[in-house]
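User: Hey, quick favor. My workstation is busy. Could you predict this chain's structure for me?
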Amino acid sequence: MPSFKLTYFNGRGRGENARLMFAAAGVPYEDNRIEFKDWPQMKASTPLGSMPILEVDGKQKLVESKAINRYMAREFGFYGKDNMESTRIDIVTEIIDDMWSKLVEANFEKDEAKKEELFTKIFTETAPKKLEFLEQFLGENDGGKSYFVGTSITLADIDFIHVMSYYLFPGQNDNGLDKYPKLKALLQRASANEKIAAWIAERPVTQF
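Assistant: No problem, here it is.
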């Protein structure tokens, strides 16, 4: 097994899917967390001026979060058994990542009126359409009683866990999955995975 070093901010963000996969696979790695105040000084030394960065065996430096996620999913068996399963996983992650991007945009909006407008649009327009599709999509696999694809956790489920930690924000959208019982049950089922649950309980508490 290669050695791994993941470099990302001291937050969940675009690095958390990788951390969740390391946890689910039981694979040790160096979790190199960068404080925001230190980022300007090191930015120029990174391959693209961005993070996350995944170093493999101290040689290969992998960049771009989606590429890193898919590399890890293939490496650890979270990317389906064939091309069709991998493609269905990609469909889910693309939909979920689009939701996440809009949540991040709204969260970092400095104008409070504009921020409220962005969140309202997400909760009333953007998310419902995507969640309705995902509810139906999940139902196509064993009636929604298992996972998005196949009979075990994949990158699709891990990405779903991650993004729902933003979407179901306490005090703001706690009941955001109540209209989607299959998705709500999936979130509970996947989050209850022993290794994933342990990581969520022990990981550093961060704002984002």
